[in-house]
């Protein structure tokens, strides 16, 4: 009894202080590509790009390492983002019709004991919600359709669906009373009126030369040049086509309007003439950029952006929907031309940047915003302290794949983060059989190298024709096709063969040996090579069932190894292929490069393979005789026959019951119906949980969950030697003593030739009484520290393990953590996590956390992630709880399953299919953005010290930049706007022809006519960037949400 | 020391209430084996131990090779076992003046039952009592899973509110399923602010023939308040499920029974027991009440000390098989985890007092005769002591969990 009193936790102030110096939980960076982006903006002055997402997040990116994130309080989709150029402020319009003003604020943050000066982050300052005029405008009429920020950045014009325009002062976001311009204040000629409303405001554009004037485009086609100071319509352009967008020419002498029929018109702005009825026509020698615009019949399902300049014409063919795009161009107002440098296209699943200066318009690999999910991530693996040798060779291999970072056009802000102390590598295994190597040393997660394992096997697709490869020759346009399509981007969610999927990865960073294991029981050992190689891969099979009778595998076949030799590019090249039989998915793999051994486990058992001698050392079946489910692979359809039968019976019963209950629908039975529905709800049996201990014959009890190599004492306390440990789903741990030639006796180099082969002898079997799945096995040395990795001891890279004091083994099951003594296995300490907290262990890792106070003080802890998404830290080997943090929502099962820890106390988990959240448990090691942006903000307050004020003061006000959308849903008459009950007038009218600009318009059926025969998906649009006038585009959220008022 | 008289006829000494030579130092013994009676006298002082007595009886009855169990009738008419020195002396001292010994053949098929009122029933005819058996092995009489397996107990009655019940389910050694389901529900709590509805976890179903049902201590709609000493407030259904499964080998649930009437009866019976009966067993019951029972102490460890290693009783029974010679192991030895053979070393060290108390109730006419209710009613009155036995078993088990091949 007294023992317990003394072991009480938590009241020692000294210990509490040490804990504070060691542990701190922070979510630091989000790596990857934002999930469901829906708005894009660019500040050419600060060179910052902003992306808004459907969940209400705003992310700002500049040069690599410069990142800011803000999250709206309401999780409404971001419809539009507009930068207040140069001020470090931006406006966001949400789906719920609210406007928000964000600021890059600066303050010094205290992190890790060191003050980081000048760190800037994003915060919301104000918000504003536009109210309808009481009694006059319905809510939908006050819905914001378009925003215009005057270039002076002090006035915001808000166009609404009701046709009204409101003016808001910036940055206070206050409405200018009585200045709103409503539809009835626009006097238009009687003959144009036709008794119809002008419709919503479709476009607002500021005059490029005369700041007080704006161009207002109404949906019906009317365009008004409005003078803000005199509140007077200076000029009216009586367009008759349904208007989509407007754009000024840079000189201000003409503008271009785009229309719903897929055409665009050029209007001359001549002074003195109040009304213009007809557009002028002109041929434009400009660069023209537009998205959509494809002939619907043939290419309606493609996501395209077309670049045209003179004879050059490229249609970029993307794999996901185009959200928005902009160009990076000069901001110098003296320039006659925009001189666009790069085209940045935001797609639903990735960001593509096209270099417009280089001939052929090649794409630039982004240094961040990588689409992690180009094929779904199936596993991940982290390596810290990567030796420079491996790093350089990987980078070289990656460069030969075309991953060399080009000149990144978005370069705003300054990264203040110190250079990483060490190189860190994150490996992700994907469903299509690729392994991607990411540089995660710093804030920007950059692709380093990509390995494909598909070419080891004989598959349907030719391995040389890799459509995922972003290094397509830019000139390789498909000549036979018109328009000249070019596949761009690497998002490709389709897997040719699900069996190729990568399940487990193990990499030895010292010997550059890699093992990847996949869904069809394949275990591939690879070595790093700098040259092309043409060799055959040795194939070997290991039967894990061995003598077990009565089991027939009903799952998928094994993959067929490639018969012929294949050229393998520089990088990791396969050496040996081991195939487990039956070909169930590999559930665990471990490499010990020093002993030339690889251990792998499936749901049936585990095997040990000597890849140096190419022989199987051991195969052990772990199946329980009653386990029948194990024979039906993960892809099997019969898997849950029993379950599905049960479910369908339940469904039938349910439907019968509900059918009986349904009352006859009489007018008076409304209330009864409601009551019945209520009663139904109460009668529904609540969720029940069965309380039963695990039994030995639970299904899938033989799944091998973890494997571990260790040089330790298994047989007796005097001789240590190589051991292999394997833990299964049913709480069994098998420990084998290995006889590795050259190891143990003379410490010779591994794989001593001629000295015989590796042997494995079963030393111990441990059956945990509670039978919970074994999540991890780790051997601790005499000091209670985990044993070093292979080679670390022999190469003197780590402190040698303590071999004099008795070792112990830490076995973590889903329910408890337990330390046993070695070689006599006796329980030393344990912690029953599930019994205490009701949570179950999902992931376990040993981390070494350094203190912030003392440079050389560190502690090794066991970190454990539970099914509730919280992190528990325990000291080792006493297993006393240290701290607990909430990390992941417990509903986020994929997030919990994807979590991976680093050895220095950081971790990653997927917050969406395409984004890793990085977090840190260490108070000392934190990887987070530290960056600054030079701002020029008129009303700035608290970061004055940071401002490097531009001497010219108000250059931004003289910038001649306009933002316009030329959005043209084309002439697809079958698919009209989803929100329009009747076909639109504009659709039914024959298109107006402008032969000069669209010479082939007469041949409507020709595929050439991209602008005319446009794919009229309502989400398509055409944006033109002309050289004199840069044109971007409001986001298409606006476009979709604008019903047409008739 | 021992005199034996070979009396062969039955029913001789019924009315010999005042024997002649019983003055102080001689105990009159009447032993019965099957249909045969033997009468003899024993010197009170200087008698040997239990073993000697056992052999004596074997000789007297001429059953030298038959394994038997010994029982005696105490002053309250209860049949109590004699299986070690301590209870042998106790039996001698309780002779008043006659010591009635019942010898039963040790029968594997029929478990022995020593219980309250057993003799009363026996008096009405032997049908009421299973052929009471005797034990040969010392110290294995009571609480031995083979003979008398405890499947549940009510513990900590003294420290819990009347409306709550802390039930311990012993899963080990049985093949019965634990057999219950839990669900989410709404619980009504009385707070200073008034009546308040809070989410709670309830027993939703008992599996027929399961352990939970067979105890009669848990019922549908009982609210679960604690699992092994840990409050389930603010825990989700899945968490509670996991906690219960994790503790399933030694599950202690604190419930608020939906049917509160049984509570009153239980306490009432206990009070009446304390009130009207006399003698040593009652006294010890009271002493248990005053001092927190070992179980409640161990329960409180769960809640206040997080890193528990040795103290908790269950499932240190991880089985470790060391095979340094065999390349492969047969699978069979892996799974017999709950083997009952570990109690063999259990000896008289278990102590005499707790054992009989844990089994016997002071007689009280209101108790029913059915065996099932015997179980359920016997256990609650002796809070603490059953747990003591089982926890000592656990400690045995911890010692014996390594099997070397």
Automatic annotation (TrEMBL), chain A:
It is found in: Cytoplasm; Endomembrane system. Residues 976-1046 are annotated as: Disordered. Residues 285-362 form the Lethal giant larvae homologue domain. One of its GO terms (biological process) is Golgi to plasma membrane transport. Residues 1023-1035 have a biased composition (Polar residues). One of its GO terms (molecular function) is GTPase activator activity. Residues 808-924 form the Lethal giant larvae (Lgl)-like C-terminal domain. Keywords: Cytoplasm, Exocytosis, Membrane, Repeat, WD repeat. InterPro entries: Lethal2_giant (IPR000664), Lgl_C_dom (IPR013905), LLGL2 (IPR013577), WD40/YVTN_repeat-like_dom_sf (IPR015943), WD40_repeat_dom_sf (IPR036322). Pfam families: Lgl_C, LLGL. SUPFAM superfamilies: WD40 repeat-like. One of its GO terms (cellular component) is cortical actin cytoskeleton. Belongs to the WD repeat L(2)GL family. This is LLGL scribble cell polarity complex component 1. It comes from Oncorhynchus mykiss.
Automatic annotation (TrEMBL), chain B:
It holds the Pfam family PB1. Keywords: Cell cycle, Cell division, Cell junction, Cell membrane, Cytoplasm, Membrane, Tight junction. Residues 395-405 have a biased composition (Basic and acidic residues). Residues 26-106 form the PB1 domain. Residues 166-259 form the PDZ domain. GO terms for biological process: cell division; centrosome cycle; establishment or maintenance of cell polarity; regulation of cellular localization. SUPFAM superfamilies: CAD & PB1 domains (SSF54277), PDZ domain-like (SSF50156). It is found in: Cell junction, Tight junction; Cell membrane; Cytoplasm. Residues 378-394 have a biased composition (Polar residues). GO terms for cellular component: apical plasma membrane; bicellular tight junction; cell cortex; nucleus. Residues 1-23, 269-316, 344-405 are annotated as: Disordered. Residues 269-287, 296-310, 358-377 have a biased composition (Low complexity). Belongs to the PAR6 family. This is Par-6 family cell polarity regulator alpha. The gene is pard6a.
């Amino acid at each position: 009894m007294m023992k317990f009193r003394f072991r009480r936790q938590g009241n020692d102030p000294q210990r509490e202080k040490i804990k504070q110096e060691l542990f701190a939980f922070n979510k630091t960076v989000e790596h990857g590509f934002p999930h469901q982006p829906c708005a894009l903006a660019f500040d050419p002055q600060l060179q910052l790009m902003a992306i808004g997402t459907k969940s209400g997040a705003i992310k700002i990116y500049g040069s690599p390492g410069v990142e800011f994130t803000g999250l709206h309080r309401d999780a409404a989709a971001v419809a539009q983002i507009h930068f207040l150029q140069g001020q470090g402020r931006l406006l966001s319009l949400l789906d719920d019709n609210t406007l928000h003003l964000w600021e890059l604020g600066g303050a010094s943050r205290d992190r890790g004991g060191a003050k980081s000066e000048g760190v800037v982050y994003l915060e919301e300052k104000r918000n504003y919600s536009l109210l309808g005029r009481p009694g006059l405008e319905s809510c939908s009429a006050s819905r914001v359709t378009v925003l215009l920020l005057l270039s002076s950045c002090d006035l915001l014009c808000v166009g609404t669906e009701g046709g009204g325009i409101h003016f808001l002062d910036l940055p206070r976001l206050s409405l200018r009373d009585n200045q709103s311009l409503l539809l009835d204040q626009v006097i238009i000629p009687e003959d144009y009126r036709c008794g119809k409303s002008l419709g919503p405001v479709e476009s607002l554009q500021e005059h490029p030369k005369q700041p007080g004037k704006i161009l207002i485009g109404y949906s019906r086609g009317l365009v008004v040049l409005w003078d803000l100071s005199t509140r007077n319509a200076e000029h009216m352009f009586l367009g008759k086509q349904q208007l989509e967008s407007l754009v000024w020419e840079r000189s201000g002498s003409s503008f271009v309007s785009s229309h719903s029929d897929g055409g665009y018109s050029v209007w001359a702005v001549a002074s003195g003439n109040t009304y213009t009825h007809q557009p002028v026509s002109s041929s434009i020698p400009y660069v023209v950029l537009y998205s959509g615009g494809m002939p619907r019949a043939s290419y309606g399902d493609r996501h395209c952006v077309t670049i045209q300049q003179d004879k050059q014409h490229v249609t970029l063919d993307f794999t996901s929907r185009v959200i928005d795009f902009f160009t990076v161009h000069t901001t110098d107002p003296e320039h006659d031309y925009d001189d666009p440098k790069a085209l940045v296209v935001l797609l639903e699943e990735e960001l593509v940047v096209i270099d417009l200066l280089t001939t052929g318009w090649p794409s630039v690999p982004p240094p961040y915003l990588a689409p992690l999910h180009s094929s779904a991530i199936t596993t991940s693996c982290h390596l810290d302290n990567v030796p420079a040798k491996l790093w350089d060779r990987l980078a070289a291999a990656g460069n030969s794949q075309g991953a060399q970072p080009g000149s990144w056009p978005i370069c705003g802000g300054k990264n203040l983060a110190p250079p990483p102390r060490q190189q860190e590598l994150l490996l992700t295994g994907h469903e299509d059989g690729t392994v991607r190597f990411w540089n995660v040393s710093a804030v920007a997660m950059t692709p380093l190298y990509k390995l494909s394992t598909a070419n080891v096997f004989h598959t349907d697709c030719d391995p040389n024709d890799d459509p995922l490869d972003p290094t397509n020759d830019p000139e390789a346009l498909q000549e036979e096709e018109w328009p000249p399509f070019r596949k761009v981007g690497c998002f490709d969610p389709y897997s040719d063969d699900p069996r190729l999927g990568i399940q487990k990865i193990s990499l030895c960073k010292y010997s550059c040996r890699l093992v990847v294991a996949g869904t069809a029981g394949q275990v591939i050992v690879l070595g790093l090579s700098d040259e092309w190689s043409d060799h055959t891969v040795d194939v070997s099979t290991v039967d894990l069932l061995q003598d077990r009778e009565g089991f027939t595998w009903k799952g998928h076949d094994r993959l067929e190894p490639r018969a012929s030799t294949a050229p393998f590019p520089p990088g990791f090249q396969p050496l040996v292929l081991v195939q487990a039989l039956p070909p169930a998915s590999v559930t665990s793999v471990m490499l010990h490069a020093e002993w030339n051994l690889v251990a792998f486990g499936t749901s049936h058992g585990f095997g040990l393979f000597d890849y140096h001698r190419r022989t199987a050392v051991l195969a052990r079946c772990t199946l329980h005789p009653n386990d029948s489910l194990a024979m039906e692979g993960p892809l099997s359809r019969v898997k849950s026959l029993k379950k599905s039968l049960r479910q369908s019976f339940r469904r039938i019963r349910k439907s019968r019951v509900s059918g009986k209950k349904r009352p006859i629908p009489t007018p008076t039975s409304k209330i009864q119906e409601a009551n019945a529905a209520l009663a139904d709800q109460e009668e529904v049996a609540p969720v029940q949980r069965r309380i039963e201990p695990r039994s030995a014959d639970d299904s899938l009890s033989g799944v091998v969950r973890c494997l571990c190599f260790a040089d330790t004492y298994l047989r007796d306390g005097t001789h240590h030697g190589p051991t292999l440990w394997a833990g299964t789903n049913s709480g069994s741990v098998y420990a084998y003593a290995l006889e590795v030639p050259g190891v143990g006796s003379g410490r010779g180099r591994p794989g001593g030739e001629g000295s015989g082969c590796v042997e494995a002898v079963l030393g111990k079997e441990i059956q945990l009484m509670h039978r919970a799945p074994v999540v991890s096995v780790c051997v601790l040395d005499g000091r209670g520290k985990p044993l070093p990795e292979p080679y670390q001891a022999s190469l003197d890279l780590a402190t040698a393990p303590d071999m004099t004091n008795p070792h112990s083994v830490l076995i973590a099951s889903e329910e408890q953590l337990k330390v046993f003594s070695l070689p006599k296995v006796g329980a030393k300490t344990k912690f029953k996590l599930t019994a205490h907290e009701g949570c179950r262990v999902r992931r376990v890792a040993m981390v070494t956390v350094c203190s912030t106070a003392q440079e050389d003080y560190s502690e090794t802890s066991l970190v454990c992630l539970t099914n509730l998404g919280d992190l528990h830290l325990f000291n080792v080997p006493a297993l006393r709880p240290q701290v607990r943090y909430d990390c992941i929502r417990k509903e986020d099962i994929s997030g919990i399953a994807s979590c991976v820890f680093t050895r220095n106390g950081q971790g990653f988990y997927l917050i969406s299919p395409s984004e890793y959240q990085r977090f840190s448990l260490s108070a000392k090691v934190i990887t987070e953005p530290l960056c600054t942006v030079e701002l020029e903000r008129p009303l700035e307050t608290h970061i004055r010290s940071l401002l490097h004020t531009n001497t010219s003061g108000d250059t931004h006000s003289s910038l001649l930049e306009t933002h316009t959308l030329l959005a043209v849903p084309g002439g697809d008459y079958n698919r009209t706007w989803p929100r329009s009950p009747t076909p639109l007038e504009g659709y039914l009218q024959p298109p107006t022809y402008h032969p000069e600009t669209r010479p082939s318009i007469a041949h409507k059926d020709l595929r050439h006519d991209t602008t005319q025969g446009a794919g009229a998906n309502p989400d398509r649009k055409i944006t033109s960037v002309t050289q004199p006038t840069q044109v971007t585009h409001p986001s298409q959220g606006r476009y979709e949400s604008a019903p047409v008022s008739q | 020391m021992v005199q034996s008289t070979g009396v062969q006829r039955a029913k001789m000494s019924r009315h010999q209430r005042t024997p002649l030579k019983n003055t102080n130092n001689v105990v009159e013994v009447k032993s019965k084996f099957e249909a045969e009676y033997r009468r003899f006298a024993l010197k009170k002082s200087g008698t040997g131990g239990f073993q000697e007595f056992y052999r004596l009886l074997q000789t007297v009855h001429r059953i030298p090779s038959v394994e038997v169990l010994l029982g005696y009738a105490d002053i309250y008419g209860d049949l109590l076992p004699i299986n070690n020195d301590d209870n042998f002396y106790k039996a001698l001292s309780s002779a008043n003046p006659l010591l009635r010994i019942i010898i039963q053949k040790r029968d594997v098929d029929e478990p022995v039952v020593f219980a309250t009122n057993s003799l009363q029933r026996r008096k009405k005819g032997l049908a009421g009592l299973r052929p009471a058996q005797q034990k040969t092995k010392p110290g294995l009489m009571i609480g031995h899973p083979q003979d008398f397996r405890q499947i549940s107990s009510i513990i900590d009655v003294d420290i819990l509110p009347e409306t709550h019940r802390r039930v311990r389910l012993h899963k080990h050694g049985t093949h019965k399923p634990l057999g219950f389901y839990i669900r989410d529900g709404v619980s009504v709590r009385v707070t200073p602010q008034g009546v308040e509805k809070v989410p709670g976890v309830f027993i939703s179903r008992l599996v027929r023939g399961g352990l939970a049902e067979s105890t009669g201590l848990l019922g549908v709609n009982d609210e679960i308040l604690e699992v092994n000493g840990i409050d389930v407030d603010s825990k989700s259904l899945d968490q509670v499920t996991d906690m219960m499964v994790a503790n399933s080998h030694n599950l202690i649930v604190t419930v608020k029974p939906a049917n509160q009437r049984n509570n009153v009866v239980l306490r009432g019976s206990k009070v009446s027991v304390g009130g009207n009966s006399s003698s040593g067993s009652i006294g010890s019951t009271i002493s248990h009440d005053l001092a927190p029972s070992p179980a409640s102490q161990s329960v409180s460890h769960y809640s206040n000390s997080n890193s528990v290693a040795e103290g908790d009783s269950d499932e240190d029974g991880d089985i470790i098989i060391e095979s340094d010679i065999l390349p492969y192991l047969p699978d069979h030895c892996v799974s017999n985890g709950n083997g009952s053979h570990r109690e063999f070393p259990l000896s008289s060290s278990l102590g005499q007092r707790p054992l009989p108390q844990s089994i016997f109730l002071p007689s009280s006419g209101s108790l029913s005769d059915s065996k099932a209710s015997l179980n359920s009613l016997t256990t609650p009155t002796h809070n603490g002591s059953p747990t003591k036995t089982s926890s000592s078993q656990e400690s045995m088990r911890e010692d014996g969990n390594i099997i070397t091949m």
